[in-house]
Amino acid sequence: MHTAAKTGSTFALLTDLVAGGGVVVLSGAGLSTESGIPDYRGESGRKRPASPMTYQTFIGSAAARRRYWARSHLGWRHITGALPNTGHRAVAELQRHGLVAGIITQNVDGLHQAGGASGVVELHGGLDRVRCLSCGERSPRHALHLRLAAANPGWESATAEINPDGDAVLDDDLVGTFTIVDCGGCGGVLKPDVIFFGENVPRVRVQECYTMTERAALLLVLGSSLTVMSGYRFVRRATELAIPIAIVNQGATRGDAEAMVTLDAPLGPTLAALVAEVAT
Ligand SMILES: NC(=O)c1ccc[n+]([C@@H]2O[C@H](COP(=O)([O-])OP(=O)(O)OC[C@H]3O[C@@H](n4cnc5c(N)ncnc54)[C@H](O)[C@@H]3O)[C@@H](O)[C@H]2O)c1
Ligand SMILES: [Zn+2]
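Above: inputs. Below: predicted complex with nicotinamide-adenine-dinucleotide.
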């Protein structure tokens, strides 16, 4: 038994496990709420007005794509304006100290990388790039932003309410006046390079995450309710292999029963305290 466990302190047990190294981080939207980006199932997510776009809706209707890009165009500056928080920086710090074997994130905001982490596997892709559904070419979102701005002069000042995560509330009449742009190379439909609800993560990416999980000394879940099977399956795999799991999350998660340690606490201060213990 770990010495820390005898003290009965959950934080001390977490510290003990992380200090052993070989940590694979599995992060979720809760890690970015302290940067002002709402999650889905926590406190901040409950205030969301709209349900997320599904893959089938996006693919199936030009009107849905227009609505998506109109809202997303308005909200883009909020996403690009978000800064990494203490939690993101703490994960990067643990990595610099050689304690982290891998980082799998369900987030699409790029804040792990902005906080100094490297080799991050973006399970659900990233909003900073777009992909053509016909020729497959990836291009920077910034370039699309400039093209959309040119195609819709004055649009950004004609705005409605904008949520901090980049979802703008727009009425249908206004959306109808938005002009979307297609792939510069082939004229195909452009989609943000993220996995929508109803879409599968590419198999190689899933396999890469399974391999990371299988080699972990500890699976450390940060800010995820684990409601989405896409992330939860790595908790399942760790459980099958008797790899310890630690969860830091405000509120319950689907993985709680499988975890050796669960800590219901805000991520920024908790991870900063963890770094102070193990990586200074
Ligand atoms: N930032 C982003 O990129 C972003 C934002 C929203 C949703 N998403 C996507 O939606 C899906 C959501 O699933 P999920 O499991 O990642 O998120 P989730 O919304 O299901 O769960 C987030 C959890 O984090 C907790 N939490 C929130 N702030 C916290 C804090 N400061 N400290 C500790 N805990 C905190 C919440 O209580 C909640 O239990 C993911 O697939 C993700 O790709 C991404
Ligand atoms: Zn194309």
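Residues 1-8 have pLDDT under 50 and may be disordered.
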